[in-house]
Amino acid sequence: MYPLIDTHTHFDTPVFDDDRAWQVQRAYSQGVRHLVLVGYLYQYFERMYDTEQVLNKVLSKKASQSSASDIQYQDELYIHTHIALGLHPFYIEQHTDEHMIALAQMVIERRPLAIGEIGLDTFTDAMKAPSVFARQKRFFEAQLDIAVTHKLPVMLHIRKAHAEALAILKAHDYDAHELGGIAHSFSGGEQEAKAFVKLGFKLGVTGQITNPNAKKLRRAITAVVEEYGIACLVIETDCPDMTPMMCQTSHDEHSESGQSPYNERENAHKHDRNVPANLPWVLISLSELLGVSRDKLAKQLWQNSCDALKITWTYPA
């Protein structure tokens, strides 16, 4: 077991309502010490904060029930939960200018860990429509402005729009070297991977890396590490999406949310969902792919996550 940071989750979604307390204890037992709840629709922002409070109560209660003589155990029985707020590009038709104004105000009042997930998405023909894509770009740039104003890192969602996203990032005054940032669930090719890292972003690696048929992704990760080293990566579950191959319970791979007009996260089936406790499989598969020991990789990924999010979390002894 290695201490891990799950840099991207949607652990607040209803599919976890029945067993969230148990799942967070499972995650702790598998080494997860921090997890980030990432926003995608304004209507769920408050739910994220409610979930954060519930998780804190669950773990505090669990610790208080531990043996009084086991003080160290009580102190450590805690998964720190953090929040990123953002308006996801795939749901652009559901976002309004009022939501953007409210997001900016929430950032002032609550100061989340990061802005995200934000970016560009042309996965479907509907998302490629000029008016829709133009709206995506406007919201993307506006949220980059918020990040710059408040000196916060961003979590990027880029799908089939890497060149356009890179152009915006290069033209914008957002500096990932200074502010941090993660290209969440990276899905581009080798040159795109190198371009994002060159701009200062870490690449988020999910359970997709466990799929031997994900050849484009595996080549991209291998190539970028050959040039920049393992300091350019972080890991994530993106739960309830991106279930590692060895954790899937059906023949259909659990695809990334946002591939249909419906909010799959809200309607995910429990037997198909990914969970934070699956994060070690990403570490294991990445270790095997790169030929780096799990111990060395786990320590570096922890540091990478801190660097990407511009925080300091002590690596557990």
Strand order of the largest sheet: 1-2-3-4-5-6-7-8
Tally the helices: 13
Gross morphology is globular
Described by strand count, sense and barrel closure, the largest sheet is: 8 strands, parallel
How many distinct folded domains? 1
What's the CATH class label?
Alpha Beta
- Structural class call reads alpha/beta
What percent of residues adopt helix (DSSP H or I)?
40-55%
Predict the CATH topology.
TIM Barrel
Q: Provide the CATH architecture.
A: Alpha-Beta Barrel
Give the helices and strands as they follow along the chain.
EHEHHEHEHHEHHEHEHEHHH
Specify the CATH homologous superfamily: Metal-dependent hydrolases
Overall mean confidence score, pLDDT? 90
Explain what you see.
This protein is α/β, with parallel strands linked by helices and 317 residues long. It is 45% helix and 14% strand. It has an eight-stranded parallel beta sheet. The longest helix is centred in the middle third of the chain and has 21 residues, at 130-150.
Secondary structure blueprint with pairings:
Blueprint: E1 4-9, H1 20-29, E2 32-38, H2 45-64, H3 71-76, E3 80-85, H4 97-110, E4 114-121, H5 125-128, H6 130-150, E5 154-159, H7 162-171, H8 176-179, E6 181-183, H9 190-198, E7 202-205, H10 215-228, E8 233-235, H11 264-267, H12 279-290, H13 294-309
Parallel strand pairs: 1-2, 2-3, 3-4, 4-5, 5-6, 6-7, 7-8
Helix pairs in contact: 1-2, 4-6, 9-10
What is this structure, in a nutshell?
The protein has 13 helices and eight strands. The chain has 317 residues and is an alpha/beta fold. The chain has a single domain, classed as Metal-dependent hydrolases (TIM Barrel, Alpha-Beta Barrel).
